């Protein structure tokens, strides 16, 4: 696009915010409708056709509610945490290219930036739990820190494996390398590295854990910790946490699409473009929702065991094997 | 500043414990049960149940009203297993007043009690999975339960707190529609149980969460007087329907599921198998349903059982429920004592949950199948 720089920047800031907002609102609707289908009930139907206005009604309700700051909380951190949790998701989206032309910023170290910012999200939930001065929230905050440390390591390891193959951290270049048909996607480049499906599975599991989705929703765990780190939040404070969860799912799924599923590249080699990117991304988002409504929650220690005893050794082995293969082949 | 104090306290060392109030309003206690947990990190060092938030003095109420007036109370003790509770009360009074119950009435009682047991186990199944973080099975189970509730609503007029049994029989006869509906339910429910096995029981996360978690051995059961699925999940073959046969249960073929492991999975499997066994009983009772009156003749409107001390035990959905009535030959009981299974099953929670992590302890609590009004009666 040939807009002058300040306008271009403004446009993309607004665009990212609108995209995050619309996604957060309508993924709630998709989740509720999807869950309803899994559970053989209609889901939201009353507000608008097929309940389509439900997210707006929910947002209005949340915004009209009083923001309760309980006595004794750390009032600065308590108010800051919801902002901190939303911000990194938006920042991450700014680096994600939707197509050849549509990206807020084409950054050479985009991958590093995404991971750097998605770690802030963890810190923000921890701060919120900590500042709430609620025992359930503190347990949840402690859980989320150890969970995210445990899952960031294997995630990083598989991403390093991938970067070793691509030789770049620029997301657009990574996608460009996957041009062609479906067998050029990183996930299916078995001739270069037969371990790619393993790395994708590890990436997907880690993404579920990083975004605190079931079966790894330790931070919220409503039947154990009431609402975990969000217990004391009311109104839009809670709403922002809720939106951030969906924004993070979008970021995670978009990243998985770019890294493994060829981004906007079409599976048949022609007509590549944004629709393919959105299709793949939302298919992944749907699978995340599907998992949530099918599986019960894991225990916290088996979650950590899974990471430290299985995922980290496997991803380390993948990394080493890939390195050896690249040296030999 | 408070936060500074918290940092100091939490960094003081892990030998320091804190108290976590689980309830009276907590999603996992399914009612107004409060458990005072002393925690060391996420490990429970002591769990002290504090019941009594919805105590309604049913026993005292029994001493203040006529024998028949207490009937509606019986369905409000364990609201999920109302039929069995009413059964115990009417049978105790029948024993006291020496009333012969017609065979048809006994069959109807068995059919409705077993239907009620299935619906109670379905609620437990859904709620237990909800405790474990799986939301979907709850709605599947409630969908099945709805069919039972519709059947019993057509028969008794209420959906939950049935007051259907009377001294000497039941309050109205079942019709062909009910028999057909019950048969249809049995054939509908069997494949559903298979589906639950595939969807839930064989789920790897569920198995990980239940196998080897929350051991309760037979010694602990004996010391606390646990009964029902908790006892049968600890390897003790005890079911009141077999041990102290009542009504027409001796005429039916059914197995008592017993699992010796004593963990949450054993209790889970006992209840799931009990649903299948209840379906068997219902089927046999529908096949052998005799003709005849559904209410004994000559039962006085105002009961005055002869003086004495009478007891009657039934196998309710949660375990052994005993009604003890002491009569002085008057129109109101002298004493009415209710022995409820949930109370005994809850008492072992403190010992069984020691040293467990919070999510496991909640799985244990869910596997006890507590109904809070049954504890606070």
Structure characterization notes:
The complex is a heterodimer of chains A (329) and B (377). Chain A has 329 residues and is mainly α. Chain A has one domain. Chain A is 67% helix and 0% strand. In chain A, helix 5 packs antiparallel against helix 7. The radius of gyration of chain A is 20 Å and the shape is globular. The model of chain A has no long low-confidence stretch (mean pLDDT 82). With 377 residues, chain B is an alpha+beta fold. Chain B folds into two domains: 48 residues, no CATH class; 320 residues, Orthogonal Bundle (Cytochrome-c3 Hydrogenase, chain B), CATH 1.10.645. Chain B is 48% helix and 12% strand. Chain B contains 16 helices and eight strands. In chain B, helix 4 runs antiparallel to helix 5, helix 5 runs antiparallel to helix 6 and helix 5 packs antiparallel against helix 12. At the A-B interface, helix 5, helix 8 and helix 11 of A face helix 1, helix 5, helix 6, helix 8 and helix 15 of B.
